[in-house]
Write a structure and sequence with these properties.
The chain has 140 residues and is of the alpha+beta class. The longest helix is centred in the C-terminal third of the chain and has 15 residues.
Length: 140
């Protein structure tokens, strides 16, 4: 079952973010979940299996000026290591695509770290293609 994340999901989401290599501050994670309302913030959804959270996806919607279209971007997606390669990730992608269509959005994009080659293959197998490079400058 896929549902919107709730405050009580903090520990599970922290564990999944750790699997992606992030070390979230619990207080910041709780604050992010309290903002999980779809208005100028990420929408965070969890995949629950047998009353256990085994994955999540976070998305944002934005207007992209050059093409004059609304886009949905997957900002993070993770399936716990024990549930990978079982179709769960594909189900989360389908969920996001249907969510986008229900909002009249015709494009979904996802960014992915250069070193996550298995993830690149996963996205390509699910119909996503590389269109650009992302450049980042950390200011502090």
């Amino acid at each position: 079952m896929i549902r919107q994340a709730k405050q009580e999901d903090t520990k599970s989401l922290s564990t999944l973010l750790n699997q992606l290599g992030y070390t979230p501050d619990i207080a910041q994670l709780e604050q992010a979940l309290s903002k999980n309302n779809g208005a100028n913030s990420s929408d965070i959804y969890v995949y629950e299996h047998s009353e256990q959270i085994v994955g999540f996806v976070s998305v944002i919607q934005f207007f992209y000026f050059p093409t004059m279209e609304n886009i949905m971007r997957i900002t993070a997606i993770c399936i716990c290591e024990q549930h990978r390669n079982l179709g769960t990730g594909g189900e989360l992608l389908s969920f996001v695509e249907n969510l986008a269509l229900s909002h009249g959005i015709l494009s979904v994009e996802v960014t992915c770290s250069m070193h996550r080659e298995q993830a690149h293959t996963f996205y390509q197998k699910n119909g996503y293609s590389k269109h650009s490079y992302k450049f980042v400058k950390h200011l502090k």
